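Quick one: structure for this chain?
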Amino acid sequence: MRVTCEFPLDRHELAREAKIMLRTLPWWKKVWYHLGRCISVGERKYEGWTGFLPFYFFKCPTCKKPSINYPNGYEGHLHCNHCPLFPSAARSQAQGVAA
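Got it. Here's what it folds into:
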């Protein structure tokens, strides 16, 4: 499923969406979630992006909260919407540079 969003990516909005998604998942996807597996929720394209990226629903191993995000960086790490940004990413965001 491909979705084009006409608003910028907001990590707080993704966190709210993750809470709703946890309540509406089928039972077998909830089992995957509780086992620590990533669940694909389709591809999205936000304002200012040139292409679609896959988004995943997962449980953060640090704070144990539900989260939705796309693979970041060369190795494709999934970053939690609730946990603070890494220091370098937070510094770049404060300077107005995309992290």
